[in-house]
């Protein structure tokens, strides 16, 4: 009989909870119902599910948009954040938080850095300090990114897909000025959230991109992981592959981010949220791009979270409710590089 491969560790994933204590409503295109209030009940269900798993998850990835922008309108941002964090803290497992557009509708970067949504203190230090620390957090143009290794030869790299953005940064940020200029060049619409007539429909205000300084840092981290023969799972709010999402949800400069990841043989997968319908593709280099379904558009009787089982030879996603099961085999050629 063949021996079954060893289970190394497991981790949970949940995306786009977008909690608000308001009645259900439709998305912008009126195609999907959003269950703002019930999203908290689904989060509680996910927490209960993870708590009962036989093998306790090592950590949970929260892929961004934890509370909805409507909280800012209703001046309930901090109350709603606290309500959600209270549920999260009932699970005796560490969350790693990614920041999405709804974080910036509710909070400034300065507030986020001082909040429990900043999980960067959980970052691993590497020998080379330039790999460990991307930039000073106090600087108005710093980005929110870090990496950690929960298991020998595995690393998770959290990136900031709103580093270049017209939301979340204000004056005197140089990145804000650059981002607004770029957005207006690419999107001549009066409403910068509208993709009408755009050749590159991802250039809308509710998306963002990754700056040159962050790309340089990502490259350093991945080069170090290539050398150590680690397997890296990259995590961000915005998807970066057009076959894994509706193009309106892509990061502004997704091509640059994608080709950078593809140039490193250590990269196994890219996990994202933002597109509530979810999506998946394996790219030409065998990198798995998984976009997770959003809790906010999941009906009360269903669910939308998953647990990844990481084995010696593959990762197996066990989805709950609308999140599908998937087996993600590791890339075969570990020396392949992008053309
Ligand atoms: N096609 C569109 N045209 C104009 N504005 C849009 C369009 N789609 C979304 N928006 C606006 O952009 C903002 C973010 O959209 P939303 O669908 O709420 O994002 P998310 O999926 O992150 O919740 C909202 O203010 C929304 O009204």
From TrEMBL:
Q: Which InterPro entries does the record match to this protein?
A: Calcineurin-like_PHP, Metallo-depent_PP-like, MPP_ADPRM
Q: Where is the Calcineurin-like phosphoesterase domain?
A: 10-277
The record's section on Pfam families has: Metallophos
**Which EC main class describes this enzyme?**
hydrolase
* Keyword list, A-Z: Hydrolase, Metal-binding, Zinc
- Is the Metal-binding keyword given for this protein? yes
**Known catalytic reactions:** ADP-D-ribose + H2O = D-ribose 5-phosphate + AMP + 2 H(+); CDP-glycerol + H2O = sn-glycerol 3-phosphate + CMP + 2 H(+); CDP-choline + H2O = phosphocholine + CMP + 2 H(+)
User: What cofactor does this protein call for?
Assistant: Mg(2+)
Q: In the record, what terms sit under GO molecular function?
A: 2',3'-cyclic-nucleotide 2'-phosphodiesterase activity; ADP-ribose diphosphatase activity; CDP-glycerol diphosphatase activity; manganese ion binding
Assigned EC number: 3.6.1.13, 3.6.1.16, 3.6.1.53
Q: Does the keyword Secreted apply?
A: no
Task: Tell me how this protein assembles.
Answer: Monomer.
Q: Which family does it belong to?
A: Belongs to the ADPRibase-Mn family.
What protein am I looking at?
A: Manganese-dependent ADP-ribose/CDP-alcohol diphosphatase
Q: What is the lineage of its organism?
A: Eukaryota, Metazoa, Chordata, Craniata, Vertebrata
């Amino acid at each position: 009989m063949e021996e079954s491969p060893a289970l190394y560790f497991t981790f949970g994933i949940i995306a786009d909870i977008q909690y608000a204590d308001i009645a259900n409503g439709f998305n912008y295109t009126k195609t999907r119902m959003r269950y703002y209030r019930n999203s908290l009940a689904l989060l509680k269900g996910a927490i209960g599910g993870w708590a009962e798993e036989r093998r306790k998850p090592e950590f949970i990835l929260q892929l961004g948009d934890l509370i909805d922008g409507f909280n800012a309108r209703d001046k309930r941002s901090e109350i709603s954040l606290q309500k959600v964090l209270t549920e999260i803290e009932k699970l005796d497992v560490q969350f790693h938080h990614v920041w999405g557009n709804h974080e910036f509708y509710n909070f400034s970067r300065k507030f986020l850095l001082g909040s429990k949504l900043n999980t960067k203190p959980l970052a691993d230090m590497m020998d080379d300090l330039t790999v460990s620390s991307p930039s000073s957090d106090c600087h108005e143009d710093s980005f929110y990114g870090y990496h950690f290794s929960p298991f020998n030869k595995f690393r998770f790299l959290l990136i900031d897909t709103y580093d270049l953005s017209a939301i979340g940064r204000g004056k005197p940020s140089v990145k804000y000025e650059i981002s607004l200029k770029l957005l207006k060049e690419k999107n001549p619409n009066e409403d910068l959230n509208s993709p009408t007539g755009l050749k590159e429909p991802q250039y809308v205000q509710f998306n963002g991109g990754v700056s040159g300084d962050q790309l340089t840092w990502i490259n350093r981290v991945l080069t170090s992981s290539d050398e150590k023969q680690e397997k890296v799972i990259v995590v961000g709010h915005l998807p970066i592959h057009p076959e894994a999402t509706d193009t309106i949800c892509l990061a502004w400069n997704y091509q640059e981010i994608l080709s950078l990841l593809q140039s490193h043989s250590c990269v196994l997968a890219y996990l994202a949220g933002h597109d509530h319908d979810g999506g998946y593709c394996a790219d030409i280099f065998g990198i798995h791009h998984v976009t997770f379904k959003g809790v906010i558009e999941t009906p009360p009787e269903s669910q939308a979270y998953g647990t990844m089982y990481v084995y010696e030879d593959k990762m197996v996603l066990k989805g709950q409710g609308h999140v599908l099961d998937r087996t993600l085999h590791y890339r075969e050629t570990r020396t392949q590089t992008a053309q």
